[in-house]
Amino acid sequence: MTDVRLYAGEALARYGFPDGHPLGADRQGAFLREAQQRGLLARVRVCSPRVATSEELGRFHTQGHIDKVMHAGRDELEFLDDGDTPAFPDIFETSANVVGAALNGLAGVMSRECSRSFQPIGGLHHAGRDHAAGFCVFSDLGVVIETLRRQYGIRRIAYVDIDVHHGDGIFYAYEGDADLIVADIHEDGRYLYPGTGGEEETGNGAAKGRKLNIPLKPGSGDPEFLEAWSRVERHLDRFEPEFVLFQCGADGLRNDPLAHLKYTPALHAHAAKSLRRVADRFSMGRLMAFGGGGYDRNNLAQAWTAVLRELIA
Ligand SMILES: [Zn+2]
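^ thats the input. predicted complex w/ zinc ion below
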């Protein structure tokens, strides 16, 4: 047994949309079966989530957005956005669980009860301060960033995102924030949702040069990613983050039904190992990883177990 925490269980599994939606409620199960087979579950502390409070959600989100999700059932909303993110029964509690799990993980890392955490159902990087988007209702990542700053006094945070989609919900919330160091490798927005994350988007004002967006052409695979990753490493070394957040979406792997890249799971291991080094060097080892996207069940199982293995190595 290591001191790495895995946030998983029934309440988190329920974060999924019905009727054949790509983000179905079976994704966590696919990961857990693979983790069990590889003997990883016996080596981590498996922790349950809790429902984040409105006050906690409000550290990142507007009250208007929180109220909209809370009353989605009463108001009989079909979607929370323009058609990607359906409302479903218990959507408030289920989405607030994703955030509560992340906050429990953060408390564990900050108190040093655990060294690192992994939350497969999390990393909801399209949700903005005042809106849901791209299957993401509340931003666990945004609430963690705000909590790090307000509660723990940690300002300089690295946000590293290898999900095939640009992490627009975090990027635009912190575009002018010089202390949120972003590195985001994704499929070129000219070919894929959400259409943003061009190389020229490097941050605004005092934050200029502190955000690294690396779009890859459709069909790119391991060689292109590895070249991009060496730029990510240099970027992080330059800004010496006090805390590392890793969104390790598995939808960049070959044959994902929503995207067009060709990664192998070895890249997820490579990135996780590299971020451990960054965290050990600058951040007292503090590293939290979140599953993000990934819609081929076998791919997400392979990629996320590769990450977990590196976290507990
Ligand atoms: Zn994605």
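The beta strands are 5-7, 45-47, 116-119, 157-161, 180-187, 211-216, 243-247, 287-290.
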